[in-house]
Specification:
Blueprint (H helix, E strand, L loop, with lengths): L1 E4 L1 H7 L3 E3 L9 H9 L3 H7 L6 E4 L2 E3 L10 E5 L6
Helix pairs in contact: 1-3, 2-3
């Protein structure tokens, strides 16, 4: 699966994107975030606060309980602020 990281998530992970083979037992976006957070210290720092993150699965905004299914791309965004 292609993983895309934006803004502060990208800065913390140190990558804008990467390809990962997601294990079969990782079924939802939330499962994927938990799994990714355990892959490195940097991923853990970027993804530890799952409730504040936003996600897009194959260009469609989704919540953490969305099933990964056959999706090819998961984008991970930090919270957006502004006026």
């Amino acid at each position: 699966m292609k993983l895309l990281y934006f803004a502060s998530v990208r800065e913390a992970v140190g990558l804008s994107d990467e390809e990962r083979d997601v294990p079969n037992e990782v079924r939802t976006v939330g499962d994927c975030i938990i799994w990714l957070a355990g892959q490195s210290v940097e991923h853990g720092a970027a993804l530890g606060g799952q409730s504040r993150l936003r996600f897009a699965l194959d260009h469609n905004m989704v919540t953490a309980d969305a099933m990964l299914g056959d999706a090819q791309e998961l984008a991970i965004f930090p919270p957006v602020t502004g006026g």
